[in-house]
Amino acid sequence: MDSFHSYYPLPSRLSVSDLCDAIRRGSIKAEDYMASTLDRIRRVEEKVHAFITIVEESTLLERAREIDRRVRDGKGFLGALAGIPIAVKDLICTKGLRTTCGSRILEGYIPTYNATVIERLEEQGAIILGKTNMDEFAMGSSTEFSYFGPTRNPWDLSRVPGGSSGGSAAAVAALEAPMALGSDTGGSIRCPASFCSVVGLKPTYGLVSRFGLIAYANSLEQIGPMTRTVEDCALLFSHMVGRDPLDSTSVEPPKTVFFSKKDDAMDLVGLKVGIPKEFFGEGIQESVAKTVRKALEKLESLGAQCEETTIPSIQYALPAYYIIAMSEASSNLARYDGLRYGLRVPDRGYGWNTIFAENRRLGFGPEVKRRIILGTYALSAGYFDKYYLKAQKIRTILRMEFQRAFKRFDVLAGPSMPILPFKIGEKVGNPLEMYMCDVDTVPANLTGLPALSLPCGFRNGLPVGIQFMAQAFQEGLIFRVAYALEKSLDLREEPRL
Amino acid sequence: MAMAKAKKKERMTRVMRRDEEKGKDGEPEVIIGLEVHVQLTNLKTKLFCSCSTDYRGAEPNTHVCPICMGEPGTLPVVNEGAIEDAIMVALALGSSISRRTLFSRKNYFYPDMPKNFQISQYDKAGGVPFATGGSVSIGGGKKVRIRRIQIEEDPGRLVYEGTIDSSPYILVDYNRAGLPLIEIVTEPDMESPKEARMFLQNLRSILEHLGVFDESLQGAMRCDANISIKGGKRVEIKNISSFKDVERALSFEITRQKGLLSRGLRVGMETRHWDDLRRITVSLRVKEEEQDYRYFPEPDLVPITISEGLIAKVKACMPILPSERKRLFIDKYGIPPQTAEVLVGSKALADFFEECIKLKADPLPLANWLTGDLKALLNEMEIEIWESKVTPAHMAELVSLVKDGILSGKMAKEVLKEVVATGRMPRKIVEEKGLRAIASMESLKEIVERVFSENPEAVKDALRQEKAVHFLIGQVMKATKGSADPLMANEAVRRRLQEIASSVSA
Ligand SMILES: [Zn+2]
Predict the structure, then answer these.
(1) Are residues B400 and B472 in the same domain?
(2) B223: β partners
(3) A115–B294: do the CB atoms touch at under 8 Å?
(4) Residue of chain B with shortest Cα separation from A117
(5) Residues of A in contact with B111 (CB under 8 A)
(6) Which of A139, B276, B289, B393 is deepest in the core (most CB within 10 A)?
(7) How far apart are CA B207 and CA B484, in angstroms?
(8) Is the ipTM of this complex over 0.90?
């Protein structure tokens, strides 16, 4: 406990909930906290490279001072997240603040509007610290496919932080930010959360507005919170949800998505936990399986009943996911032609089609090109039924099988990632191996169900995450289970940087 | 009786026309299908964002927002007015409306499309069109069947310097991008450029009557035409922006293709562009296969359920349609069916007709003036009635001047020309030009008296034989220099003869 507090003089490791209270009471100044955050960034960012863009120091400090003025004067609205810095994945549009999607094609792109989730969080007083690194257009599981270079795992700088929200996970893990936003299309929050030992939630599809989220695969993705504790995750999440008239697929959240620690948090008696054996299938590292099983035992000690079950079509989830994601991506990314925004080669003498092709050739990285080509192929006449339509059928079957499972179980659990964080460069040359990492995370995206990754231990100093899934809109239940396990595991390690 | 006769005649001409167009083995020589794009001009905002649709005359790229510019991260939200409009159109065309409809993405690269895909609807690849079936009558008892109706967004506008094939660059104006359109796709049921024009004209009239479309807005209705001539492949003509141009473009294309075929050359599958300045078609691309648009359901929009309640609500507010209005004109005003058909062929014309009636114009002669002389004059000038200087007051006055015998039919034609040219009131023109006709029976009587006294022999003959009566009428007309109404002259002469006859017998 002592060593935990001894490295840094300022409270950069306080939980968001405690920090909120402290700032509102005036016992910690938002400005001081911001200064300490900036100090931390100065020390570790060079090693971690979590950010693509960091907001000007003077701007950040001024915003924090404005919160302090309101606290001091007792005048003006003080939001629930007043003065809390937040790191934002660089595919969520921020008005006037460069948003690159980790791509050269948007290297200089400055959005003219805020994503709805940014509007909501800023209204609650959160201060955007900067934009975090990611795999280009969220296509990757390691954050190596960023035009701006890879992010490093704070627990082992030679390893990847996971992806595609690797920058957000690393920033939170490295204490560069108390909370962050990621996006999850096929595991892009839960994978780096697991690799960096932070809490990450992929919400039920529709709970968080996607307006302003630069699309990779619209029907699969959600913006979600990434934090150090379950309580922080629930807090941040509660200010992100809500029906948005600008997003037709968004819904009004029912009460069941919320969580507060006053609930009988530690009591899991009677909780039925299903363990789909497919989550421990081929390709899982023994060390990961062992750590997750230990956590499940812990869960049982809290009163939960764990039982193995099966969801057979999980074995088809990965190919179905990649077909749908790439198909949607091939269309979503068509707009990047350089005509209205983004990278533009000199026009002189070329026809528009040549200019479009040139901008895209230079602007997109190899993984993005690979997925555009595969997606274009899958949607082409003669292949549509064979791929896209078949993938949609698998999606329907998968939904039904999960529904059936939730008749027997309250939550489903398993490893978030089948493997430990791998070495930078280890899988770059082998896309299939990289795609295999998403085997446990994609079912939640295909079904639209909520899923959370919770740190559950370390193996050889590398983090392992456990994933909980529940029925749609049961985030509250997931938080309750994860909170109980978190308390009981009491992981108090922190990366040495 | 008269109606039955007219109907019979219609049928007869139709048979003759089709015979001419048919090839030797009875198959149509020319097959035409249309894809019509209509801006829903009654909607104030674009299809998927809240930008104003009132873009005409605005500075380029001022009616835009992140959504219709396809900025990263933006999402579409459907304008519900477009759904109601589409329901109305489907009901009017007798199409069957899908109870659950969804949008699809049509993927292709083009500078006028901010997202490089168009949000549209489709009947394949998991898509559901808004409505299918239905028809539009094109006169002569013939109907053109509708294949499908769908809602989609308009692309931006490409502006060329000069013509499409000589312009060194393209300018793009996105003010139009995202405007709500409905696309109406026909079956290939038309067999001549004229039928295509009739289809478009009648469709336009229906849409105007529904109030979803304003014909006075430039470029609000555009169409692509598919044409196959026997012995050749299907050619698509894009960029046709009026129903007059559809006839021109198709006629041009028929001549061009027939020319090729007669020289033993082949007509392959091709997409051509209608250049409305030069009035020719130019090749855009030659293709042997259908373009692959990689349609798939739009993931950013949820499927839309069209409830019976909504359909009933729209049905309850349906305005009068051209077909009902035609019936009304026939029954209420005694207008012959063919004339009524022409009147309701344009909402503006039918409205104009009713405005004149309100001004107490005699319906039958009025209808003849509107569909005859006035229409011919306007056609000659290539303008529509709302673009002309003629108002219902002009026409009502003209009709009553003729009715009152102040103007003869012949003089009235001259006056109408003057009205169309200057916009001055007919009465004023009559007065200024001293065109005053032999108005009353009184003034005619004097002339009859003079003619009778100058031709006593003819008067005697006229009491016995019809031929001499005609001579006298002719003399009266001559004396009035043709300014008298022939009917009136006829009556005045016969009345005077009767007086003489009765006084002789007395
Ligand atoms: Zn707009």
Answers:
(1) no
(2) B36, B240
(3) no
(4) B73
(5) 339, 352
(6) A139
(7) 44
(8) yes
